[in-house]
Amino acid sequence: MLSGPKCPLSGPPDGASPITGFKTFTNTDHPPRPDKPTNSGGQQAAAKHTPTKAPPSHSATPQQAVGRQQKIRFPRTATLPRATEIILNSLKSANPGVSVDDANAVHRAVCAEYGPKVNLGYLSTMAANSSFSRFLDAIRRDRAEHVEAQIRAIQQTHPDCEHGTAAGNQPHPTTGALLCPWCRCGTQLPADVQRERTHPAVAAAVTIYRQSVPRAGVAELLRFTQQATVLHRHGLTADQLADHARQAAARTPAP
């Protein structure tokens, strides 16, 4: 029986299994590749490097800023009440100078006459029948009479102005303008009027005309004064001049 040199017995390699003789590798020996993450490690890395969304910005765009500035500079105009609007639109065609205050006064007069049955439908029916004019005429007539009474009271308690107009340097009770047209403009009387003082009958006619036409201009009052002076020279009495003033005021178109 042949016998040769016996090799010394040795154990399995370092880290080899004593049964299979092969070496098994652990995760510490071969760490996972960075481009192929494991289930647990990859999810953590992805969650770690996921960019967060920026919070929504609450700053206004330039267009929105301009719109807000326009709303501040130009606030919305308050709309009229529906009742006032119905009356105002109905009166405008025949009364161009009608105002919102006039429409409100007409509304109060209508409610005072017809009572609680006045609603929007009732006002619409009256507007279709043009039934508001008589209320407006009565309101304006009462206003004119009240203003004339105030002017008469002022003229009785204040002396004439330097131009010979009764209480001419006193303000009008409603407009605030001076009663005398020459005092109002700060101008002197025309030369022909300075040479001869205005006759009391002419001054009374001018006063009637001015009270009937409160918004008459200076040129219009001067023209009427000269006309009344000429008529007085031709023999018209004070009563005739007063009638002439009322007729001239009725012919004067409303402003």
Amino-to-carboxy terminus distance: 153 Å
Mean of pLDDT: 74
Q: Write down the secondary-structure element order.
A: HHHHHHHHHHH
**Sheet/helix structural class:** mainly alpha
Largest sheet report: none
Helix percent band: 40-55%
What is the total tally of β strands?
0
Rg calc: 51 Å
What is the helix tally? 11
Strand content: under 5%
- Envelope shape: elongated
Low-confidence stretches: 72-77, 192-196
Concise overview:
This protein has 255 residues and is an all-alpha fold. Helices cover 53% and strands 0% of the residues. It has helices at residues 39-49, 62-73, 82-92, 100-114, 120-128, 133-157, 181-185, 191-195, 200-212, 218-233, 238-251.
Describe this structure in words.
The chain is an all-alpha fold. The chain has helices spanning 39-49, 62-73, 82-92, 100-114, 120-128, 133-157, 181-185, 191-195, 200-212, 218-233, 238-251. α3 (82-92) packs across α4 (100-114), α9 packs antiparallel against α10 (218-233) and α9 (200-212) runs parallel beside α11. The longest helix is centred in the middle third of the chain and has 25 residues, at 133-157.
Notable features of this structure?
255 residues, mainly alpha, 11 helices, 53% helix
Q: In terms of topology, how is this protein built?
A:
Elements: H1 39-49, H2 62-73, H3 82-92, H4 100-114, H5 120-128, H6 133-157, H7 181-185, H8 191-195, H9 200-212, H10 218-233, H11 238-251
Helix pairs in contact: 3-4, 3-5, 9-10, 9-11, 10-11
